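#help-structures

NK: newbie question. if I give both the sequence and a SMILES, will the prediction place the ligand too? trying with S-adenosylmethionine
OV: yes, paste both and it writes out the complex. here, I ran yours:
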Amino acid sequence: MSLQSWFSGLAPFRVSSYKSPQVSLTPSLHFSRLSSPWTKDKMALVPYDAEGLGIQKFYKPLTTYKFVNHTIQIKQDWKQLGVAAVVWDAAIVLCTYLEMGALNLQGCSAVELGAGTGLVGIVAALLGAHVTITDRKIALDFLKSNVQANLPQDIQPKAVVKELTWGQNLGNFSSGKFDLILGADIIYLEETFADLLQTLEHLCSDHSVILLSCRIRYERDQNFLKMLGNHFTVHEVHYDLEKDVHVYKAHRRNHKEDL
Ligand SMILES: C[S@@+](CC[C@H](N)C(=O)[O-])C[C@H]1O[C@@H](n2cnc3c(N)ncnc32)[C@H](O)[C@@H]1O
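OV: that's the protein plus ligand as structure tokens.
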């Protein structure tokens, strides 16, 4: 795929007429409530700023965050690298959730999928995790530079940046090695759903926890969550109303649960 089509075809913009479902902070998914009367003609791609939300923030070459008592400065390059080189709200919400301390990351083995700028992986490392921060090959140099720039020397060895294109060369990642699998705004391309699911299946052991943060933009995003629910037990554990971002926690389905 050319850089141009990689950039233009994959932006997870939101549909103009889609209103986010009002999901309460219930501990489990209620798909029936979420099936909205969407139709295909409502699927025109419209950038966020059409809704007054603004994508100006993507044009900033540098964005600054404060997590785990560290100032994190992330370089962005929307024009050259598109979706993988800007910080999405889902990443900020997932970092906030991690910082809230629902999980103890100290010493845990984590992997981040579709890391983009690496903000989530950086915060996971600052919270004590050993983290493998992954994305597609084309995004890796930019990702590495953000990770290196934001981790103190003593924490650098805890973070490794590595290529992981979903569904490909999964043998490079030992099955079941990770306690925690992280993904922010990675549910948006229908053609990748099967590969993403296969990747989660491969990486997960019986004790692994998956945390996925996302904004539900399209009916297809719900479909992915349904697919996920066929293989994993899925609960919504956090919802950021202002950013309209959900955090889902999943773990491998225990056979006893099916009885
Ligand atoms: C919307 S961006 C989210 C980036 C980052 N997680 C964040 O929230 O700021 C989606 C990310 O998924 C990555 N991605 C898309 N398709 C992929 C695939 N098939 N395999 C691996 N990563 C992929 C993109 O390169 C991009 O970094």
